[in-house]
């Protein structure tokens, strides 16, 4: 294994005072067999923020890579998520314990409600207690549209530290971002690269801006998100792309370039519509052996 680099990634301070690296590494749809190698390579490339979920079924492999890396625990920021079939106060507490055990950790940095379905108010109560006990340094949500985020925030003790939602040039989430900013919730993008969509990588606005900075489209998109104060967690199984996706702190987009990218927004998901009844029914029936 190559020696981990000492690259310093900027952090953002969450609403409870803890620091979160603004650029992390996601492992969605990385098979359990491949995950240990991929995460080992990502840590060697310099990533210190990892994003997994019980639903990805690769937490144990993430944990093995963390343990083998020898990187001090306090230099890592680890997020995992609670799946719908574990929603509710007691099930959520049990699921948290199983995730922690699989990851081989004694505390988490960020625990998210993966989807706004099922008894997620019960889940939130369990998570507030886990947070108060110090079992996780922050708690938050994912895939919450502004209405659900506002209601959860108003009806509970703790404001979510983060809302992780699909965000990329074709789905920019401007209103969501505004609501999060007003309430002190950190916006985190999933699918920052449009999940590898070819029309993103060939878009003329993005390729034009990339050429003028001698950067790639992936780097321009990640930079655009970071300049909007959005945390990013791109995924790649390839070490050269892992390094490419980290190399975004030596250039800046102009206001005019930021504005040109704004014009690409379609206002719609390119992955999954969280308000589509058929989609909600589908997800609610997906069960994992967590
Ligand atoms: P992504 O936008 O990060 O795209 C990943 C794909 O983009 C790769 O598989 C590869 O095909 C391509 N790619 C990556 N780097 C590239 C580069 N430099 N040049 C060209 N192509 C490149 O998609 P994602 O993995 O779905 O999202 C990132 C992370 O967000 C996930 O791994 C996961 O941790 C998280 N996520 C969360 C949710 C949720 O519901 N909360 C949903 C999806 C993803």
UniProtKB/TrEMBL annotation:
Pfam families: Aldo_ket_red (PF00248). GO terms for molecular function: oxidoreductase activity, acting on the CH-OH group of donors, NAD or NADP as acceptor. Coiled coil: none annotated. The keyword Magnesium does not apply. The active site is at residue 56. Substrate binds at residue 114. The record marks 81 as: Lowers pKa of active site Tyr. SUPFAM superfamilies: NAD(P)-linked oxidoreductase. Keywords: NADP, Oxidoreductase. InterPro entries: AKR, Aldo/ket_reductase_CS, NAD(P)_OxRdtase_dom_sf, NADP_OxRdtase_dom. Belongs to the aldo/keto reductase family. PANTHER family: 2,5-DIKETO-D-GLUCONIC ACID REDUCTASE, NADP-DEPENDENT OXIDOREDUCTASE DOMAIN-CONTAINING PROTEIN. This is Diketogulonate reductase-like aldo/keto reductase. It comes from the Bacteria. The lineage of its organism: Bacteria, Bacillati, Actinomycetota, Actinomycetes, Propionibacteriales. Residues 29-264 form the NADP-dependent oxidoreductase domain.
């Amino acid at each position: 294994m190559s020696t981990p680099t000492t690259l310093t990634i900027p952090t953002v301070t969450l609403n409870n005072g803890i620091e979160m690296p603004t650029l992390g590494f996601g492992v969605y749809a990385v098979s359990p067999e491949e995950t240990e190698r991929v995460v080992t390579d990502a840590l060697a490339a310099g990533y210190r923020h990892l994003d997994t979920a019980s639903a990805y079924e690769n937490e144990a492999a993430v944990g093995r890579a963390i343990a083998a890396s020898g990187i001090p625990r306090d230099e890592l920021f680890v997020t995992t998520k609670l799946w719908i079939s574990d929603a509710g106060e007691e099930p959520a507490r049990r699921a948290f314990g199983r995730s922690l055990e699989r990851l081989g950790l004694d505390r988490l940095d960020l625990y998210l409600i993966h989807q706004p379905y099922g008894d997620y108010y019960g889940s939130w109560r369990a998570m507030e207690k886990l947070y108060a006990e110090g079992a996780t340094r922050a708690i938050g949500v994912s895939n919450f549209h502004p209405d659900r985020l506002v209601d959860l925030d108003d009806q509970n003790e703790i404001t979510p530290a983060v809302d992780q939602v699909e965000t990329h040039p074709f789905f920019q989430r401007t209103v969501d971002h505004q609501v999060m900013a007003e309430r002190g919730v950190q916006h985190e993008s999933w699918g920052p690269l449009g999940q590898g969509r070819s029309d993103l990588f060939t878009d003329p606005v993005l390729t034009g801006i990339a050429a003028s900075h001698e950067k790639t489209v992936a780097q321009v998109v990640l930079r655009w998100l970071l300049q909007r104060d959005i945390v990013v967690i791109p995924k790649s199984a390839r070490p050269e792309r892992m390094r490419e996706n980290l190399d975004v702190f030596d250039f800046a987009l102009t206001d005019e370039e930021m504005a040109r990218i704004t014009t690409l927004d379609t206002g719609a998901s390119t992955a999954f519509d969280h308000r589509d009844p058929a989609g909600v029914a589908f997800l609610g029936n997906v069960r994992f052996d967590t």
